[in-house]
């Protein structure tokens, strides 16, 4: 214990509370101290099953209350209520970022905390403590007499006396807490369901549909000649349908993630999410423009048609490139918890979409060169056109490659969707 002069305990000037699905916390505010009392109490099926699991394994655990200037982890003072072998202790930590917090004052683990008790009540961890509002001699101490903080509540396991990473179900207050008013505040967990839905829709649209739509337009204009709708070739019908579906699907996925982040731009605290959101917005914009101009395309023989083709091709390929970058950034977003398996699948898919056009080009060149004596040389000395037999052979190989593409691309996309669906903290990424 330090030899600081203890500030006097004065009468209570305000009482408030915080409540969310799984936690309750109430406090009494005095001039120099805030007296907290709260704990778990979730009645949801998930909370109950987690509690039963914990009781069955007898794992040590902690419940932590963070005071933070923002809604994410970093530069926060955290009061950690620990239960180790059914013995409770309370310590004061500081988190520099999204890393295991360290003691606020290594010489005094309980700095600023007095009258602490931690216990289990019906299997729920409960914690009471008094926190000094400011201590000038401790540099990083969060001064709740001057600043207003968001309240963050997390829980997790303790191994070897060390607190482990909490789950993704951290509760954050909806607004900053004003301890000096008699009000009950509320908060919520940012659940992963919406991010997962966003990611799955985008992966399907951009990795499966767009790659297929583009190769159909580039290499498969010959397929299914008998299927013509309104005299339009199959490849065109398919390309148009797929490419209209993609921006619609992207807009749906965009609205889902917007709802998740509270209809605001993502916070700039995570560089990866921010970069992802910028690339993503440009991409959605470009895909809408692409569809718009797709419908305004000049007639096949119109003088402006070659210009349309060049511009459309350039914007289309830019979309694909941006989509690859955006998806890579997406799988790197920490809260997706994908780790190596996420970018591993992405690399597999990227390799394939690079290899496929190379293979097709190679087939076209090699097969056209065989039996070169049978080429029909055109009058104006243009490159030789393969004869009917070679053309059929090239088409057969290309069709086989299309099936292979559908199989490989779909396989990667399904694998990524499953991994996104089942990912949770600690599953694919070690702490
Ligand atoms: C997100 C939307 C779209 C993207 C990303 C996209 C992408 C592409 C790409 C990259 C190509 C060139 C393939 C190649 O030869 O290398 C292409 C060709 C083509 N696309 Fe699209 N497209 C989109 C939407 C549309 C729509 C909505 C239409 C029609 C309404 C359309 C009509 C065409 C046509 C006619 C071609 C053939 C051009 C040619 O023969 O060179 N596209 N598209
Ligand atoms: C090419 C496909 C994608 C596009 C166009 C796209 C677009 C976007 C956009 C525009 C935002 C920002 C929303 C906002 O600022 O409010 C966003 C956020 C997000 N995206 Fe994507 N996305 C794509 C793929 C993915 C993938 C593959 C993943 C994960 C595997 C992913 C995960 C996320 C997450 C977690 C956020 C929220 C970031 C945060 O709040 O920190 N996205 N996306």
Automatic annotation (TrEMBL):
Residues 160-370 form the Cytochrome b561 domain. Residues 21-156 form the DOMON domain. It holds the Pfam family DOMON. It comes from the Eukaryota. Keywords: Electron transport, Membrane, Signal, Transmembrane, Transmembrane helix, Transport. GO terms for cellular component: membrane. It is found in: Membrane. InterPro entries: Cyt_b561/ferric_Rdtase_TM, DOMON_domain. The chain crosses the membrane at residues 201-220, 241-262, 274-293, 314-333, 345-367, 400-423. PANTHER family: CYTOCHROME B561 AND DOMON DOMAIN-CONTAINING PROTEIN, OS01G0895300 PROTEIN. This is Ferric-chelate reductase 1. The lineage of its organism: Eukaryota, Metazoa, Spiralia, Gnathifera, Rotifera.
